[in-house]
Write a structure and sequence with these properties.
Blueprint: H1 5-15, H2 37-51, H3 62-80, H4 86-104, H5 106-116, H6 124-130, H7 142-153, H8 157-160, E1 161-164, E2 170-171, E3 175-182, E4 187-193, H9 197-215, H10 222-225, H11 227-241, H12 244-261, E5 266-267, E6 271-276, E7 280-284, E8 289-290, H13 294-299, H14 304-322, E9 324-326, E10 334-336, E11 342-344, E12 350-352, H15 355-370, H16 373-382, H17 392-399, H18 413-429, H19 436-455, H20 461-484, H21 488-491, H22 497-502, H23 515-537
Parallel strand pairs: 5-11
Antiparallel strand pairs: 1-3, 2-3, 3-4, 4-7, 6-7, 8-10, 9-12, 10-11
Length: about 550
């Protein structure tokens, strides 16, 4: 620790949203590993087009094993489930693809894990099956872990750590993490990349890029999941995860963004100033309540509704004002400290927006708060979700966005199915796609939606949205208005009509809507869709 700990600690907290009692101090000018990060980011970006380039000839021997497993899965589905109705067909192909992914190893398991947290983006059956990929992957034997750590740090394990737990705290598809103690006495977590995973990922991406076009239109999930676009998006995320120096840099940048915003509801573990390499990341060890431990949190006096509110505000602030956000929120990547702050872990997937896209995100969210439909579509276009030359008025007319919202719980199963199919067909006809940053953003919103169900099921959603809108107007209003070209007092008038419409609620309804009530509405919709499926099979 530095000689003047109090002064150093204050300086450290001005750098980022870190814990109050640092095991070491983050000095941006003394992070030995950070100098290579810009070149590494550029190299990863330049490598991507070659990795996802469609090939006429199957790339290498790896394709044989992939084709064998996927071919067997799709063949069995076509023989046994394809003609037994849409619901059975989708369930069957999803289950068989999940089993094939697990057999094919880390790259495919990682893809499954990303899909598993994409409720609302990917088909429900696919999401449900791939959630099973979240369970721990068998860890690497400790001698291999030791070999990676010693090779990357250039020293024997005992020269760096006085204690290193042979059993991992968790083992995932790309890496596993171990508790340890540095020779200087600090408790740490050590993230270690699986030895052969980088080469395997690159081989698998080439195979996926070759295979994806052949899946279009051949399986019932393809129309929504769009295999080639999914491979491209997946490649953008997983290639950055293969260099832990990029992850450590993400940790620093997200922590800095929160500090700059005065957002202290989050805590980011400090990466070590020296012990970070391509395959090893040593970081501060934090502890707290699991994100679903509602009983434990409330027993400790933690306001779980405040945890949800902070989560939403901090996430939106990072996107809108700094163009950076944690890209893979789920229960395993965060926990709640005893003082109610949320610790964020695992920054391998991080959303980064250039200035143009950040402003588009800002316009999208401001437009949503004002029920500005055309403004939201223009922002989506600028984010790359719609073609640059798209006719926004035609999109509004074709999707019925200029008509009063319809309560989906009042529709018959046939009407509800027809409406969903019409909307999907129209979007695909306009060339809609899901850019990486937008997919990560929506995926995180889906997680936060689920967090409300766990931590604050009786929260009044309309009141909460109005409160968050007021927070942004009072805290960041002048900056936001200037960046989107609004007069704060004259032009920015919150309007929950569009929010109510997204929940299928009549805009004239004045009473609140709790998450429990929203779940009841969703259950009605799911039940009617199921009845529609059962009716078609008879």
């Amino acid at each position: 620790m530095p000689e003047d700990a109090a002064t150093a600690q204050a300086a450290d907290l001005s750098v980022g949203a870190f814990s109050d009692h640092p095991p070491w101090i983050v000095d941006l000018d003394r992070l030995a590993w950070r100098g290579v990060v810009p070149a590494r980011r550029q190299a990863v970006s330049q490598e991507l087009p070659e990795l996802v380039r469609p090939r006429r000839v199957p790339p290498g021997l790896r394709v044989v094993r992939v084709a064998r497993h996927l071919g067997a899965a799709l063949g069995a589905w076509a023989l046994l489930e394809r003609r037994r109705g849409p619901a059975v067909s989708r369930t069957g192909v999803s289950r068989r693809l999940r089993i094939a992914a697990e057999a094919l190893g880390p790259t495919y398991i990682k893809l499954g894990q990303i899909i598993s947290s994409g409720e609302g983006i990917f088909p429900e059956e696919l999401v449900g099956e791939f959630r099973k990929c979240r369970d721990q992957v068998p860890p690497e034997p400790f001698p291999l872990v030791r070999e990676v750590v010693e090779a990357d740090l250039g020293r024997p394990l005992d020269a760096v750590f006085t204690w290193f737990d042979r059993r991992p705290l968790a083992a995932a598809s790309i890496a596993q993490v171990h508790a340890a103690e540095l020779s200087t006495g600090e408790p740490v977590v050590v993230k270690v990349q699986r030895p052969a995973v980088a080469g395997l990922v690159r081989q698998d991406l080439k195979v996926m890029a070759w295979l994806a076009p052949h899946l279009v239109g051949r399986i019932p999930i393809a129309a929504l999941a769009n295999p080639p676009a999914l491979v491209d998006l997946f490649a953008q995320t997983i290639t950055e995860e293969l260099d832990f120096r990029l992850e450590a840099d993400n940790m620093i940048d997200v922590a800095r963004s929160f500090a700059d915003l005065g957002q202290r509801g989050y805590v980011i573990p400090r990466p070590h100033p020296e012990l970070v390499t391509r395959r090893v990341l040593v970081m501060e060890r934090l502890s707290g309540f699991a994100f679903d431990d509602v009983v434990g949190m409330r027993g400790a006096g933690v306001n779980t509704e405040a945890v949800v509110r902070t989560g939403m505000i901090g996430f939106l602030e990072g996107c809108m004002l700094h163009g950076i956000f944690h890209g893979d929120l789920h229960g395993g990547n965060l926990f709640v400290l005893g003082d109610g702050r949320t610790a964020l872990l695992d920054f391998g997937i991080t959303g980064r927006l250039g200035e143009q896209r950040r402003l588009a995100f800002l316009r999208l969210l401001v437009g949503a708060s004002m029920n500005d439909v055309k403004g939201q579509l223009a922002a989506l276009r600028d984010l790359g979700a719609l073609p640059a030359d798209v006719d926004l008025d035609a999109v509004i007319a074709d999707l019925g966005l200029d008509r009063p919202p319809v309560d989906p719980t009042t529709l018959t199963p046939e009407e509800l199915t027809a409406e969903i199919q019409r909307t999907v067909k129209a979007l695909l006809g306009y060339g809609a796609r899901m850019p990486k940053e937008l997919m990560l953003f929506v995926k995180n919103l889906v997680f936060l939606d689920g967090a409300i169900a766990t931590l604050a099921p009786d929260l009044d959603l309309f009141a909460e949205i109005a409160q968050i809108s007021m927070y942004f107007a009072t805290t960041h209003g002048e900056r936001i208005a200037a960046e989107v070209g609004l007069e704060l007092e004259r032009d920015w008038e919150p309007d929950l009509t569009g929010v109510k419409a997204s929940f299928g609620v009549d805009p004239d309804v004045t009473q609140g809507l709790t998450y429990r009530e929203l779940q009841d509405r969703r259950a009605v919709i799911r039940d009617r869709l199921s009845k529609r499926e059962r009716g078609r099979r008879r």
